[in-house]
Amino acid sequence: MNKLIWTGWAMYVISFVLPMADMWGYDAFWMYFKGFFEFDEAEYLSVLAINLSNVVMILSPLLLRAISARTLGVLLILGGLHNTRFLWEVCDELSDLGELFPAYYVWWISFFVAGIGLWRTPS
């Protein structure tokens, strides 16, 4: 399971240097992170959940010392499930889904890979 966890974390990091539409992965990360502090009420909860999932992924090596691997795995899987909403928020047509490749999809899948690896880790 360690390979699965490391693969998920590596995918997350790699997603920051991959292209997504007209920007890079790290640009999209900062756009949502800065958007959290703008307090647009219509999108606040969505941006909050996206940012929380990123914080949990970034801090997951440290969080493993405080909470169980299974709990952290579930949190990452739930974060990945929530981030699926991003597809419907950004894309008006199915043809728009291709513009998110590869940064978004690598970022998105990294939550499931790391989450499943952590969830399946023996206690």
Structure, explained:
- This protein has helices at 2-15, 25-36, 44-63, 69-83, 85-90, 103-119, and strands at residues 19-20, 23-24.
- It has a two-stranded antiparallel sheet.
- A hairpin with a 2-residue loop joins strand 1 (19-20) and strand 2.
- The protein starts with a helix and ends with a helix.
- 68% of the residues lie in helices and 3% in strands.
- 26% of the residues are buried.
Question: What would you say about this model in short?
Answer:
The chain is mainly alpha-helical and 123 residues long. The chain is built from six helices and two strands, in the order αββααααα.
In spatial order, strands of the major sheet run 1-2
Beta-strand residue percentage: under 5%
Secondary-structure-based class equals mainly alpha
Count the strands?
Answer: 2
N-to-C SSE string, H for helix and E for strand: HEEHHHHH
Write the layout of secondary structure elements.
Blueprint lengths: L1 H14 L3 E2 L2 E2 H12 L7 H20 L5 H15 L1 H6 L12 H17 L4
Antiparallel strand pairs: 1-2
Helix pairs in contact: 1-6, 2-3, 3-4, 4-6
Descriptive terms for the model:
2 strands
